[in-house]
């Protein structure tokens, strides 16, 4: 099994529209399912709480690594950090990267998550499984959101 997740989707919207849905923290929160309190700023931690049923106890903590308009956005986070009894802050984070390319009014969005090898061994398989499924779900969410 590869310890990298890569997925992509075609969105019938301009790259500028998809960029805003991806990098405006309020819009990101709507389609991703997070209540985020402050704008994304490179080098700063973004905080909030998930709003997805079954995950409303899960905090959102990610460090924004890059916002290179209009094509590249990246952050790090603790993947599948859903157990409220566990302190994940001492664990390494994975890197989530998005690339946007526009062709004739359609935007291709590619997401890649790396760094699972650095997680504690007992967490790798669960985090990979959960996030592989999760990225498929989230790409469909941004597609529906940006196309509406």
Automatic annotation (TrEMBL):
<protein>
    <submittedName>
        <fullName>Vanillate O-demethylase oxidoreductase VanB</fullName>
    </submittedName>
</protein>
<comment type="similarity">
    <text>Belongs to the AHA1 family.</text>
</comment>
<dbReference type="Pfam" id="PF08327">
    <property type="entry name" value="AHSA1"/>
</dbReference>
<feature type="domain" description="Activator of Hsp90 ATPase homologue 1/2-like C-terminal">
    <location>
        <begin position="12"/>
        <end position="147"/>
    </location>
</feature>
<dbReference type="InterPro" id="IPR023393">
    <property type="entry name" value="START-like_dom_sf"/>
</dbReference>
<dbReference type="InterPro" id="IPR013538">
    <property type="entry name" value="ASHA1/2-like_C"/>
</dbReference>
């Amino acid at each position: 099994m590869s310890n990298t997740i890569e997925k992509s989707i075609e969105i019938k919207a301009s790259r500028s529209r998809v960029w805003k849905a991806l990098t405006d923290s309020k819009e990101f929160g709507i389609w991703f399912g997070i209540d985020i309190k402050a704008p994304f700023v490179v080098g700063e931690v973004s905080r909030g709480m998930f709003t997805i049923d079954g995950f409303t106890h899960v905090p959102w903590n990610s460090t924004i690594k890059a916002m290179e308009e209009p094509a590249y956005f990246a952050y790090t986070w603790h993947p599948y950090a859903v157990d409220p009894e566990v302190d994940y802050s001492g664990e390494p984070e994975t890197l989530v990267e998005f690339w946007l390319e526009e062709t004739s009014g359609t935007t291709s969005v590619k997401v890649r998550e790396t760094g699972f090898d650095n997680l504690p061994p007992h967490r790798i398989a669960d985090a990979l499984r959960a996030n592989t499924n999760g990225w498929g779900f989230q790409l469909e969410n941004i597609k529906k959101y940006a196309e509406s």
